[in-house]
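Chapter summary example: a protein plus flavin-adenine dinucleotide.
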Amino acid sequence: MKPADSINEVSNTMGLEIYSDGAPRQRRQRPSLKYAEAAREIPVFSQTDVLVIGGGPSGTSAAVAAAKLGADVTLVERYNHLGGLSTGGLVIWIDRMTDWHGKQVIAGFAEELFDRLPREAIMGPGKGEWGSRDAAVADYWSYRSAAFQGVVTWSPTIDPEALKSLSMAMVLERKVRLLLHAWAVQPIIKDGVMCGAIFESKEGRQAIFAKVVVDTTGDADLIARAGVDAETDIDTTDIHHCINTAFMLAGVDMERWTEFRRTDKQGFADFMNRGRETLQFFEKPFFSWRSDIALFMGPRLSGYSAIDVEDLTEVEIRSRHLMNGHLAFYRARAPGFEKAYLILSAPQTGVRHSRRFVAHNKVTRGQWDEGKVWDDEIGVSASPAPKWPNISVPYASLVPVGVEGVLGAGRHVACDASSHTFLREVPQCWMTGQAAGVAAALAAGSGQFPRDLDPRLIQRELLKQGAYLSPSIQSRAGLVFAEAK
Ligand SMILES: Cc1cc2nc3c(=O)[nH]c(=O)nc-3n(C[C@H](O)[C@H](O)[C@H](O)COP(=O)(O)OP(=O)(O)OC[C@H]3O[C@@H](n4cnc5c(N)ncnc54)[C@H](O)[C@@H]3O)c2cc1C
């Protein structure tokens, strides 16, 4: 049976219409013409100390961190909400914030956020269980995204609307000037220094001048347009190059589904095989923050670029086709999904990787084994597996080469392809965002370029904001703090 026929077979059974056949579209050739856009004057919208572009995890965290230091901060976001992929992309499974011993190493902004999210908006293990290797506890949480390699981890799933609301509250209470529905299109560069950005909105094109810019667009939009080189190599055998639009099915019983997975391993394997035969790209659901909503962070599509407008369009068309196919297939065959319905497809396309900007240093696979602690460390990530120690992230990986006045944070920070597998995760983006925000405020306040800042000042402020740094860095920063007082 051809895949397309089998999709129709499933959809017809359910009386659902499939609106596209899921096959890749034929591209029309683009004309090889150029258009000379006329130079023009545009209004200056504002002047600010710190301009943060992109309100995802890294941008929200950067804006709050900079404002805590008293900087005047403007945050520009193209959509109508904050949280980026962690809300609008339905990436509501927040990856590990604990190391393999259960110690919370991604703290600071992340910790503040979870202290403030309503309890009913979070599903995850209690603090007492973090790091547990108890087989029964780990088995329970392994089906709920919070145990990995037999260790219970602090990696909860959350309600995206609660995170949107809290993110907005946190920036507004810090008096950040928030601009939604505003798309930054071009950095303003004078003598090699980024001193603002041009954005487009329903009002047209306007400029914002800033003492320091923080690019948290995820795709290094501003940094790349400033001419900074980017690394784009990625392991094509791994999921990190894949793009997709996530979706949620409601009206489900995830407890019943999990019981099926746990107790009927052959039935589950047959189900998955049948799904793959029928739809080609087939995904199993994750627990969300509630047992009547299932999360699908796929099906993952390969071979597309997140910075090519036609590729992004194609991903949306194919993802929608696959969403409808999944709905029909699960309703027909999955225990607990008989009454499922599509409650939401993600407003933001699920991009794992596009560019990683070139910076003064970067996190690399080479440092994992030796457990290198950078002198300019601004955060610590749990390692990908228990055999490696925690991974230190240097400040210089946030400082692009070739242009001054700008910092980058989030999933485009400087690292190699292997280290990108975890540096792009939501908690790590909160962590680099907070560091970039602190550094941007310090640089704006002192009139220095971010590159010239003393990292110990950044470390000291990060510790004051509740961030975690390696013990050797903590004691050194503590000394500096004591001297400064
Ligand atoms: C399918 C998928 C599954 C994933 N699974 C997990 C997981 O299980 N756990 C986990 O922790 N992480 C996961 N991740 C990774 C994680 O979601 C992202 O890497 C993380 O959200 C990146 O944060 P960010 O702030 O760098 O960028 P983003 O979340 O992409 O936010 C960038 C923000 O900037 C805005 N923006 C972009 N360009 C502009 C512009 N020019 N002007 C104005 N605004 C702009 C965007 O609208 C967006 O709001 C997953 C990612 C994907 C795609």
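Key point: The longest helix spans residues 309-333.
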